[in-house]
Design a protein that fits this description.
Elements: H1 6-54, H2 61-88, E1 97-100, H3 101-116, E2 122-127, E3 133-136, H4 138-154, E4 160-170, E5 173-182, H5 189-193, H6 204-210, H7 216-226, E6 230-236, E7 240-248, E8 272-277, H8 281-291, E9 295-300, E10 303-308
Length: about 300
């Protein structure tokens, strides 16, 4: 009898999770279908731009550049949707390799610096002399850095952005710290609290003014957690923000995702505890409907821990 009330809630959660996975599979398939013609558009715009220069039709070049820039921007948005779909479907994997940290910082710097000039920002690098190498997924580390620096540039104008990279030792384990500090618009504590939720930015006015999908930070934090690290934020409204990536210097294995099969807790009428990976508000609604009780929840990146009390 003690297990009775818990069963409808668990069934509702499983059904909602299955629906969420179906949605993720659809998004992943649609993203692939969209990327193929979009890559063709970008490729042809580059070819036409070269042909226009050769033919002396330089008046066409600015318009062709706009097509290319718009296409690449759209492609980056589609890639973010594809990444979050893979994460929700549990199909995101790590590819570990050893690489020089200084080299990846210089690579990111050379790519991001031209973008800084658009908002008249200055990027300064501060890398420890003994930073050395690390073993991790270099592509995901680079993507997380691009995201943090891109956001810092987006929300800062005529300001300074600092990238500080250092190696620390905690409990006999080496860690690499990437700290991105800006002098931009900053955030309130309430905005920081919902910052890592999928499809969410600081608030609706931020989305309207600056654009974006609201997925970049969610994806970047998930990548870091897969490697045994995390992203944290400290911010003050009107003064700027500091985002910190903390990763093991040697990532030995991919961290397992929490999912419905791993749930623990007291299965009785008064308290049903579960850990559900990659859930949406539909899960909360389903659980609430099944139990007809309020649902308290704590959201941590794409993993939701909730209990019915």
């Amino acid at each position: 009898m003690a297990f009775g009330p818990a069963k409808p809630a668990r069934k509702a959660v499983l059904e909602a999770q299955a629906a969420n996975h179906a949605k993720s599979a659809f998004l992943a398939n649609m993203s692939h279908e969209l990327r193929t013609p979009l890559n063709a558009i970008i490729g042809y715009s580059e070819m036409l731009q070269e042909d226009a220069v050769i033919a002396g039709q330089t008046h066409c070049v600015p318009d062709l550049q706009k097509i290319k820039i718009a296409g690449k921007h759209l492609l980056s948005l589609i890639n973010e949707v594809l990444d979050i779909s893979k994460i929700e479907a549990g199909k995101m994997a790590l590819y570990l390799e050893e690489f020089d940290v200084q080299s990846i910082v210089q690579d990111v710097d050379s790519t991001i610096t031209p973008l800084m000039s658009r908002n008249k920002n200055t990027l300064a690098l501060h890398v420890d002399a003994n930073i050395g190498s690390m073993c991790a997924d270099v592509t995901k580390v680079r993507q997380a850095l691009f995201n943090l620096l891109g956001n810092a540039n987006k929300f800062t104008e005529n300001g300074n952005i600092n990238l500080t990279v250092k190696r620390i030792t905690e409990h006999d384990k080496d860690w690499i710290i990437f700290e991105v500090a800006d002098t931009g618009i900053g955030m309130t504590p309430e905005q920081c609290a919902r910052l890592f939720r999928p499809f969410t930015q600081a608030d609706n006015s931020t989305t309207r003014k600056y654009g974006g999908t609201g997925l970049g930070l969610t994806i970047s934090r998930h990548f870091c957690m897969m490697m045994g690290g995390d992203i944290s934020v400290a911010s003050e409204m009107g003064k700027g923000s500091v985002f910190t990536i903390k990763l093991p210097a040697i990532v030995s294995e991919q961290q397992p995702d929490l999912n419905i099969e791993n749930f623990h807790g007291n299965r009785n009428a008064d308290n049903f505890t579960s850990m559900v990976s990659r859930v949406e508000p539909t899960v909360l609604h389903a659980a609430r409907s099944a139990e007809r009780k309020p649902v308290k929840f704590l959201l941590s990146t794409t993993t939701l821990m909730y209990w019915i009390s």
